[in-house]
Amino acid sequence: MRNEEMIIAMKSDATEAQIQEVCRQIESYGYKPHLIRGEERVVIGAVGSGDNKDHLHNLLAEPGVENVVPILQPYKLVNRELKKEKTTIQVGDLEIGGDRFVVMAGPCSVETREQLLETAYAVKEAGAHILRGGAYKPRTSPYDFQGLEEEGLKLLAEARDKTGLKVVTEVVTTEDAELVAEYADIMQVGARNMQNFALLKRLGKINKPVLLKRGMSSTIKELLLSAEYIASHGNEKVMLCERGIRTFETATRNTLDISAVPLLNELSHLPVVIDPSHATGKRSLVKAMAKAGVAAGADGVIIEVHPRPHEAWSDGPQSLTPADFAQVIEELKPYVALESRRMN
Ligand code: PEP
Ligand code: MN
């Protein structure tokens, strides 16, 4: 039986024993209890496909239970119905999804030690919190640069040590997942891999935050179901990233679906990040779209920066110079403040 999962909201004064008893009963009906301890109350998701949803309705009579309501969407754990408060993800001392607007920046690809370190110092100086850079590149053409692989990961780790920035980098295959996790603070799943379910399941087993990018032809529901794959396999530290989708328009590389940001915030409690670089493919548009992302309620932004964009081995046309990037950050500040958030 599918789509019969329920949310059991406990009363704010429910005792621990009552909570445990409800969990026990949920299990006895063949569902998996999923406990969420909010500031006010405990909410328990009964997920999976148990024998009979009427049994779950019976829980209404249990002491300590306030309400039992169905989760209507196919995604459960990432659903805002299950958890009203926004999820915050801790990356070392950095919190994502809280009042800080988080800035991730760096080159599309890790190319050389000099290129990476120069970029890392520059984006740090401009106010970024997290360094981005691909060591494994999912290129559309097999003849294009595929990434420095472990050598690139080592350079990212060196840049982290030198600057104090956290590192987000893409993992492309299940085989590389453990290795990437040794070096990365956040594991990026690229647009082309959003529905690589084997990879999503593996990331569910790895205790590292995930930046899940929306597939270029994926719906919001599919994005949330991909997040659900990771969460249901054990890792709820997922950020959703809107990076533009394919439309009939060819003037931009993709079409930034800005409405995805408030919609994702309505539908899910997970943090939302905007990628104006891949969304537009044009450096001249990045600043305006980053501002739009802030205004739409994004929790962070990921921007491509290269010291010499015209020499970049990938995505040069959308990469900002460090000076341009610093200007973007300056101009974002009042927008961030208007949203009652801060950048540092
Ligand atoms: C990237 O971040 O460099 C990248 C490949 O992005 P996407 O998966 O969104 O195309
Ligand atoms: Mn790129």
What features would you highlight for this structure?
14 strands; 2 domains; TIM Barrel; 11 helices; single chain; alpha/beta; Alpha-Beta Plaits; 344 residues; binds phosphoenolpyruvate; eight-stranded parallel barrel; binds manganese (II) ion; four-stranded antiparallel sheet
Return the average pLDDT rounded to an integer.
95
Biggest β-sheet, characterized?
8 strands, parallel, barrel
User: Looking across the biggest beta sheet, what order are the strands in?
Assistant: 7-8-9-10-11-12-13-14
CATH topology of the largest domain: TIM Barrel
- At the first level of CATH, the class of the largest domain is Alpha Beta
Q: Which CATH architecture of the largest domain?
A: Alpha-Beta Barrel
Distance between the termini: 48 Å
Q: What is the topology?
A:
Blueprint: E1 6-10, H1 16-28, E2 32-37, E3 42-47, H2 53-58, E4 65-70, E5 89-91, E6 94-96, E7 102-106, H3 113-126, E8 130-132, H4 150-163, E9 166-170, H5 177-183, E10 186-189, H6 197-204, E11 210-213, H7 220-232, E12 238-242, H8 260-267, E13 272-274, H9 276-280, H10 283-296, E14 300-304, H11 322-338
Parallel strand pairs: 7-8, 7-14, 8-9, 9-10, 10-11, 11-12, 12-13, 13-14
Antiparallel strand pairs: 1-3, 1-4, 2-3, 5-6
Phosphoenolpyruvate binds at residues 108, 134, 138, 190-192, 213, 243, 278.
